[in-house]
Design a protein that fits this description.
about 100 residues; alpha/beta; five-stranded mixed beta sheet; 3 helices; globular
Length: about 100
């Protein structure tokens, strides 16, 4: 299963980015292979529509779950229609490796 996590950077020690559409990176973690891919978010500086464009990007990567600090209404609708589960973590001090450890349990 592929889980996408919003991140402030491109290392396991980076923190969870609380913003979905304008996060710095998307981390694609594959629970079956253990592989991790860091994708820069091209929508970070979009004037509008960053959430929708980011949702399309995440869906195109085969995500089944998405972890972030918050999701906008339009993004939630898109993911609901695609059957992608949203997980909200309010602790901005969580690192990517912490979240991956939680996912693996």
């Amino acid at each position: 299963m592929k889980v996408v996590i919003t991140s402030t950077g491109n290392t396991p020690d980076s923190l969870l980015d609380s913003r979905f559409g304008r996060c710095s990176y998307f981390v694609v973690f594959d629970t079956e292979t253990g592989s991790t891919e860091y994708i820069p978010n091209a929508n970070i500086d979009s004037v509008e529509g960053a959430g929708v464009a980011s949702a399309k990007l995440v869906a195109s990567r085969g995500a089944q779950k998405v972890v972030s600090g918050e999701f906008g209404f339009k993004v939630k609708e898109i993911f609901d229609s695609l059957g992608i589960q949203l997980i909200i973590i309010k602790d901005a001090n969580r690192t990517i490796k912490d979240i991956i450890t939680l996912i693996q349990k």
